[in-house]
Amino acid sequence: MRSRPRPTIREVARLAGVSHQTVSRYLKTDDTISKALQQRIATAIAQLDYRPNLVARAMRSRKTGRLAFLLPPGTAISSLEMLTGAKTEAHSAGYVVEVVTLDGSPDTRTDRVLELADSGLFEGLVSLTALPDVSSRRDPQGPPIIVAPHYDEHMRSVGELADAPAVEEFITRLADQGHRRFVHLAGDYVHMSARRRREVYIETIERLGLDSYGVIDCDWLAQRARQAILDLPEGSGVTAVIAANDVLAVGAISGAYLRGWLVPGDLSVTGWDDNPVAAAMTPAVTTVSVDYQSLGRRAVSRLLATLRGEEAPESREPVSAAIWRESTGPAPTT
């Protein structure tokens, strides 16, 4: 049995004896329509059991209450925290956030975003990965597209997320505590964050006139970090380890204990990422905390400002901060 076609706004208008534009104004709660006409339209809607096509209306008006949060494929835990911040900011303004994964080449990602913008499903879009030529290709009458490139196409940190000012802070403060010879346990250089931490380590050591035993590549593997400490020759003079993340820091502490060294009595160790396990162990690891939720809030606040026709807010607050804990202390006295 075929179902009866859904009644249209024009049928409502004919039954009420008004134009379909008047019915449309009524549905938008236009108070300029007389009470008599409002009653006739309401009666016609009830008789026909008319239900507005909300999707079509949203596509026409661009008012959907929905924002798109665009991410490259991957499993970075940081993206979940960033999404939490984005949702908080969006919800406070009456919007919901939907996540869309962007894969493929840079041009393919841009094409996909432009399709989403033209779909009428979203009032605005935020991309956390770069979109080549999106500004020049987007419809100026379409929803705004904000690009905040915190990840590359493989969900690896780039830009502000890959900066490493805390490495300089670690070395400077440890030098003030008497440390003179350092070693850096580096991550996988396919990650910009690993490259930047190595670069800042080398630059800071040279600038402060300190000594470096060198940079040891550990590829984010704790066992390599542990072996690196076990392989340090007697009399190396190393009293401080700058590890590229907390996993490597924990590996370094394990290697120190296997050698009978105290941390921080004989060796100070720093990490990165504020890993909960590294924070809970003894000694708790000196590390870097990154406020990913703040980055999500910032991105959405830029989009909301654009939607309102306002100047996008600027924040100069750093997103990362050193957290000094038990794994660092003064250099050992000889």
UniProtKB/TrEMBL annotation:
PROSITE patterns: HTH_LACI_1, HTH_LACI_2. Transmembrane segments: none annotated. It comes from the Bacteria. Residues 7-61 form the HTH lacI-type domain. Keywords: DNA-binding, Transcription, Transcription regulation. Residues 314-334 are annotated as: Disordered. CDD domains: HTH_LacI (cd01392). This is LacI family transcriptional regulator. It comes from Phytohabitans aurantiacus.
